[in-house]
Specification:
Layout (H helix, E strand, L loop, with lengths): L2 H23 L3 H17 L1 H17 L4 H7 L3 H16 L7 E6 L5 E8 L2 E6 L4 H13 L2 E5 L5 H17 L7 E3 L6 H6 L8 E5 L2 H10 L12 E5 L5 H13 L8 E7 H17 L3 E4 L1 H8 L2 H4 L4 E3 L13 E7 L2 H11 L4 E5 L3 H10 L4 E4 L19 E2 L7 E2 L6 E8 L7
Parallel strand pairs: 3-4, 3-6, 4-5, 7-8, 7-12, 8-11, 9-10, 9-11, 12-13
Antiparallel strand pairs: 1-2, 2-16, 14-15
Helix pairs in contact: 2-5, 2-7, 3-7, 5-6, 6-7, 10-11
């Protein structure tokens, strides 16, 4: 597809999305829910076909030398398909918030003023590797009454085409326009440039992928962007804490899966519990092959354990390590004096994605919740829970570390806007 044809093609997708968005916006909740339930059925009925398409993508990506974490994200297993099918059903079971009026108050003039929740219109989604995002984005678009244009990575084109075909079938089965969810069918890189520069058709862009992609989209887009650049997530082990619980959470947050943006990347440990806690978690990380990049205090404690130092890679952390999102079996570890230093460190070095405190001290927990400036802040829980599905949003379109409009996992509400509605009985302004 040449540049002129790509431009025309994207304009056509935009025009079709804008037209479809008006129909989806006024669709009754029952119709939208019917489409979501139909999609869940179709996903379960077509597992073999979806995995066959995904296998073609995996083989091509492996031959092209795609990095390990990206190959992991590209994989579409039966469990992944079931998860997105459950997400569709969870969304269908949720109340429809479109048209909801909130905050209605009567003013001295006699008018009543409130706000109505309405769809944004059309969103463009640009993402890499993970084909399950196709279903998450599509299902959220349907539930929130929006249309969307999806541009997945070229490495997942076969998987995404197979998934998008099921979405359009579900839309048609429910009596909704197929154009409400459109997949960009070309791998031409020019398509992205056009998608992010069509304010006449696209109301917001949501990039989901590597830092380079998101920086480029944020820089070049001519429409608003909902984004997060990276996920340098922290767990702070407080004094006092339940050591057994802390070890279990620090293990899960880091090693349950290395590639997600909500995986633990930097572990902070209060000096009062470091001698007890670090050898225990260090032994687990060592057994799992996790490289530990430590400050002097943490390295001293870990290297004193013969069982750990003989099998583990313990290296001195650099200043850059405190900023890093590894997405790999690597973690930075620092001993801090207490909760104040932990909060200061997090607010300086984190990407403001997700942070967790493991503590028995209620006041420390409350201080951490108030003062840590991140999209998700947790007490005694793994950072791996920072996810729309786990938060009960049904699915998520992405995670925002911005402070305007949407912050944290972006679900239905993040894809809506509020407009003022005024109800009168003949009032005029004097």
């Amino acid at each position: 597809m040449n540049a002129l044809n790509t431009a025309e093609y994207m304009q056509t997708l935009g025009f079709q999305a804008k037209a479809a968005s008006a129909q989806v916006a006024r669709a009754p909740a029952a119709i939208k829910n019917r489409a979501l339930k139909a999609l869940a059925v179709l996903l379960r009925q077509n597992v073999a076909e979806l995995q066959s398409a995904n296998q073609r993508d995996l083989e091509r990506a492996a031959a092209a030398g795609l990095a390990g974490p990206l190959l992991d994200r590209l994989k579409l297993g039966a469990k992944d398909i079931e998860t997105v099918a459950l997400g569709c059903e969870q969304l269908a079971a949720m109340p429809d918030i479109i048209g909801e009026i909130i905050g209605m108050k009567e003013q001295p003039s006699g008018i009543r003023v409130g706000q109505m929740r309405v769809p944004i219109g059309v969103f463009g989604m640009i993402y890499e590797s993970r084909p399950n995002v196709t279903i998450e984005a599509a299902s959220l678009a349907i539930k929130s009454g929006n249309a969307c244009i999806l541009r997945g990575g070229s490495e997942a084109i076969e998987s995404n085409k197979a998934l998008a075909a099921l979405v359009q079938q579900a839309l048609l089965d429910a009596g909704l326009p197929a154009d409400a969810v459109q997949l960009v069918g070309t791998t031409d890189r020019e398509a992205v440039g056009h998608l992010i520069a069509m304010p006449a058709f696209v109301d917001v862009i949501i990039p989901r992928g590597g830092k380079g992609l998101i920086e480029r989209i944020s820089r070049d887009a001519k429409v608003p962007v909902i984004k997060h650049l990276d996920g340098n997530c922290h767990v702070y082990v407080d004094d006092p804490c339940d050591i057994v619980m802390a070890v279990n959470i620090a293990d899960n947050a880091k090693t349950q899966k290395y590639s997600p943006c909500n995986a633990l990347e930097s572990l902070l440990v209060a000096r009062g519990v470091a001698q007890e806690f670090l050898p225990l978690i260090g032994a687990i990380y060592a057994a799992k092959g996790v490289e530990m990049r430590c400050d002097d205090a943490a390295a001293l404690i870990l290297r004193a354990q013969a069982a750990i130092s003989s099998v583990a890679t313990i290296v001195s952390a650099t200043e850059q390590d405190w900023y890093e999102e590894y997405l790999a079996p690597v973690i930075s570890i620092k001993v801090v004096e207490g909760v104040d230093e932990a909060i200061a460190h997090i607010n300086e070095y984190s990407s403001h994605h997700t942070e967790s405190i493991l503590t028995r001290d209620h006041l420390h927990a409350q201080q951490f919740l108030r003062e840590v400036d991140s999209a998700s802040v947790m007490v005694n829980a793994s950072t791996r829970f920072a996810d729309g599905f786990e938060y009960g949003l049904g699915a998520e379109i992405g995670i925002s570390t911005d402070k305007f409009h949407a912050r944290g996992p972006v679900g239905i509400e993040g894809l809506t806007s509020l407009k003022y509605v005024v109800l009168g009985q003949g009032e005029v302004r004097h």
